[in-house]
Automatic annotation (TrEMBL):
It comes from Ktedonobacter racemifer DSM 44963. InterPro entries: DUF2089 (IPR018658), DUF2089_Zn_ribbon (IPR053957). Pfam families: DUF2089, Zn_ribbon_DUF2089. Residues 9-37, 41-86 form the DUF2089 domain. This is Fis family transcriptional regulator.
């Protein structure tokens, strides 16, 4: 079985499901079905969401799993939030995230102080 494709590879638009089938019972349902919020995300974004659930929202662990910087993982999360129609909290300082980055020695004490002061 192939992974779910959510976007038209030519236009980039959301795809619509037109057929559902249960191989076990042979039941086939045809029509036009939305993929909902899943249809607004790319395959890569869905993979990211899967990891977010796996790590219970801990971006630091997710970043380590993906072998990317914390800020890169945070940016990808912001892109997903925007794709779902939300507004990333770019202006609000996430105090816990700053302290986590400080604890992991990703940033210096001076940088943490600067970020916490805004």
């Amino acid at each position: 079985m192939h992974p779910l494709i959510t976007r038209d590879p030519v236009s980039g638009n959301e795809l619509v499901v037109t057929r559902l089938e249960c191989p076990e019972s042979g039941i086939v349902i045809e029509g036009q079905f939305s993929l909902g919020w899943i249809g607004r995300l790319t395959r890569e974004q869905l993979d990211f969401v899967e990891l977010m659930v796996k790590y219970r929202g801990n971006i630091q662990k997710l970043a380590a799993e993906m072998n990317v910087a914390y800020n890169t993982a945070r940016s990808r999360l912001d892109e997903i939030v925007a794709a779902l129609g939300g507004t990333p909290e770019e202006t609000r300082v996430d105090r816990r995230a700053v302290l986590d980055r400080l604890a992991s020695k990703e940033i210096s004490v001076e940088e943490a102080m600067r970020l916490l002061k805004g």
